[in-house]
Amino acid sequence: MLVQFPLALPISLTLTVPPIFFGLWESILRAVPKKKTSHRKKRQRFMAGNALKDLSSLNKCSACGNVKRAHLLCPYCVKAHITDIFSLAVTPTHLLSASGASSIKIYSTTEPGFPLLQTLEKAHNLGCHHLVASRDGLVAASIGFGGEAIIWSLKDGKWVEDGRVIGTLQLFLFFGSWTSKISIEVLISLHIDGNQAGEIWAIALSADGQYLASTSIDGRINVWDNLANRTKIREFETKKNFGMSIDLSRNGRFTASGHENGGIYIFNNDTGRLFHSLQGLAKPVRAVAFSPGGTLLAAAGDSKAISLFDALSGEQVANLSGHGAWICSLDWSNNEEHLLSGLVKRAF
């Protein structure tokens, strides 16, 4: 028996979709879970072209014969600090280094291999953050994180402690009663050996080591006379902004300071007054340096540029740009023809 079935013809259906669902389809597709990239794959992509490279700039130490990196001190001979080195000071015959450790190490700059000559044990219990030396190489100064300031002198080829900078505590004494018409106010200055942390921050020595200048966290600038038993001879006030850098002219006449707010000041040590308030760099000033003749002042910092000022007139005479990082140190050549700058990126 033959059974016949009618053919089912396709029927077109039309559905009306509310406009609110028009943008949902793409979001649904994006919400579908994707295959997660493994940590190994990410690491391979990250290290592609950035893997550790072999050191090719190697040579042998002329003193001990061990292999070392070229243009770097030999780690076998130098025996450097166990913590980060925060400051270096160079004299004609020695290199002084300070770190977060309590000792200051002294190396020879006249012998092959820069051997370690002396270690000043327990100089600063909490470590040392600033270390400077005079141009003649006979006087040095170091500042510890605990606030202590020590003056060192070179005697018979050895560095010895010559004394400490004593802080001054001022007290006002009031005699009488607040209701009486007669009263007496007395100002007493007490010299105490115990500077608080931050009382002395950046430091600078004059060329002959007689004068020591320092900044503080509250913007004060102090100058001491090392030959007069380290007596404070000048105290200058600024806008109470953190003093990050300081320098003394080689003749000891002027003191310049750079501050966190970008301010730059020049003080006259002879008159004890502010000489110039220079146009700032708008960013922290991490280095200031007088030229050997004392006629120019270089200032630099986070602005990645060096500004040159006429120290006598206070006018800006040049602006040296092109640095790619913060400038943390400046130094002039003796003939004033070259200016060296040190950057954060370990470039010069």
In brief:
This protein is mostly beta strands. It is 6% helix and 43% strand. The protein has three helices and 26 strands.
3D structure, described in words:
- The protein is mostly beta strands and 348 residues long.
- Helices cover 6% and strands 43% of the residues.
- It is built from 3 helices and 26 strands.
- The protein has a 4-stranded antiparallel β-sheet with strand order 3-4-5-6, with no helix packed on it.
- The longest helix is centred in the N-terminal third of the chain and has 9 residues, at 39-47.
- It is extended, with a radius of gyration of 33 Å.
- The protein starts with 23 loop residues before the first helix and ends in a 5-residue tail after the last strand.
- Residues 169-175 and 177-193 have low confidence and may be disordered.
